[in-house]
Amino acid sequence: MRIATMLWTVRALGALCLGAGTALAADCPAEVREPVVVADAVVCRELHDAIRDPAGLPLDRYEEVYSRYFGNFCHRDTASGWVRDVTVRDTGPFTAMFVDGAWRSQYNGTHSPVVIWYSPEMHAWMQENRTPQDKGFGPDKSQVPDGAIIVKEMFPPPADLCRDVAVEHLFPTHGAAFMVRQSTASADGWFWGYQGWIDTPLDWPASNDSNALPNSGFGMGCTNCHASARDNSTFSSLDNVTGTPDSVVMFLDESPADIASQNVAPAEMPSFHETIANPVDPAGRLGAPTLWYRPDFLTAYPYPEQEGGTGEPRLETRLMMPS
Ligand code: HEC
Known about the structure:
By secondary structure, this protein is α+β, with helices and mostly antiparallel strands. The protein has helices at residues 41-46, 48-51, 59-71, 120-129, 223-226, 239-242, 259-262, 272-277, 295-300, 315-319; strands at residues 15-17, 24-26, 83-84, 94-99, 102-107, 114-118, 149-154, 176-181, 190-195, 217-218.
């Protein structure tokens, strides 16, 4: 773990109750007094090429590059041609239900509320391929050029909490997911990554304790969703940059059966993994998931007796296996 070098005074969380008869003003937990802008332009110039060449360095050294680059807020460099979404926006609906005398709300976006920043290369590509007039499907006119970068800063849900705050005064409390284009480095042509300003887990060297899935790399799980984008694995749209807060693109994550069923207490809610692995709907599938070890598998790959005598690895052993 490492802590970003920059410290920002994040305003206290919470809603301000102004008393009977007055409006209830919600405070934006991501608002900061000082504008969040490029801290040192020299660092941005120094890392200009390295950030665009993720395959050029081993992951641990590239992680240093991007955490310095984004830690320095180089992606907010509007003077160098970076552009951003018009406003902080939800990436899906925020729903509320009145249950047992109380409101229960649920954010249904694919990511936390976002402000997405686009490098000059990415912006130029969007102007050619993703104009508000062009809502088509199928291939884009051109491939995203190498060196294009997209940085998706994330904020607390719902976006309404922070919509009235100037974006320069919003600190990305929920980190940022980012994409760097390098077409020859992997099948989908993107480096996928996560940047946290408060606490960033390093992927390399991997932790022996947590065996956590990596946050950054090529061919990441991010492609599960991004492969369904129209083309180029990106949902980017100029509408989000030039439009109004009402015209921005929004997607509904339909993985849970319906929104109403999400509004149950977390303890009663099946995990996302459980919902996928043990579907209850009758839709035909290629094959049912195998929940237990098959005897022929265990015969071929017997586990040592000390693992509990069942011939299967214990849970603790399974958790330590490479992901
Ligand atoms: C659950 C599906 C899902 C997963 C998993 C996912 N994304 Fe996304 N992502 C989306 C959708 C949908 C959008 C468009 C959101 C919008 O603009 O409203 C998006 C937008 C983005 C954007 C802005 C550019 C664009 O294509 O719109 C970036 C950058 C991004 N995601 C990075 C990542 C990274 C990095 C990961 C993995 C660590 C990841 N995403 C995992 C669904 C997903």
